[in-house]
Amino acid sequence: MADTCGQVLLGSGLTVLSHPLMYIKVLVQVGHEPLPPSIGRNLFGRQVYQLPGLFAYAKHIIKIDGKAGLFNGLAPRLCAGTIGTLVHSRVLQVGLANKLVSGTSQKAEEGSLQHVVNETTKEMIARSCATIVTHPFHVITLRCMVQFIGRETKYSGVFDSIVTVYKNEGVLGFFAGLIPRLLGDVLSLWICNMLAHLVNTYAIDDSMSHTGEIKNCSQAVTGFFASMLTYPFVLVSNLMAVNNCGLAGGLPPYASIYPTWVDCWRHLSLEGNMSRGNSLFFRKLPVGKTYATDQKRFF
Known about the structure:
62% of the residues lie in helices and 5% in strands. By secondary structure, the chain is mainly alpha-helical. α5 crosses α7 and α7 runs antiparallel to α8 (211-229). The longest helix is centred in the middle third of the chain and has 38 residues, at 113-150.
């Protein structure tokens, strides 16, 4: 219990610190570009036209809503983080994941491929349960953020937002964008753990000094690589969570009305926008797009 409380406190602190970054990333993912392109320098020092980066975007938000504006949607995100940590820990503690895995596989030696598969399956079950339970708070978080575009106040608090979603969309509204989010989480977990196992088994010699630190580093690197590969699922999930919800950021011209997340994926793929919002530094202009000053977006 003490470990779980410590995880909740640590997670809440990291959530508060990282919230402005997520807020800006979500607005960029939706396609909101309030500042026109400007001349800057790329990594090689050459002058190029760039889109405003993280700090310029943050200054724009502060200018309109003050510093507190950078934390729109923080309350439901904290709820999601806290509940998710508790559910994840509880699923592992009660042995639900162990029972499901033990029923389909045999015990394996630590470090073997079968052991990695078993542990990854347990973690997948725990994460999926936490994601499903907390997704309604994730949807509310995103909608609180996207309100910045149209200056709406439709989602003003956790409880009021729950009522708003239920009245307008019913129970299904709480789970908008859930499927691509689950797929992305599962794929990212498996890619990360399988790559880390390959690296630790075939590229790292156990006789080397600091083997533990090296393996931890390889886990971090493969995790970053996996998150890059599965980023389109994150983008599609976030867009579907705000699509056609009555906010300007989820309606034309910012977004088409997508019947399913697959339609959203296809549309983004055709337009070459599958990586939109992936980087908040050295942001290049979209190829073949024109900036609309009045709409504050590219088309």
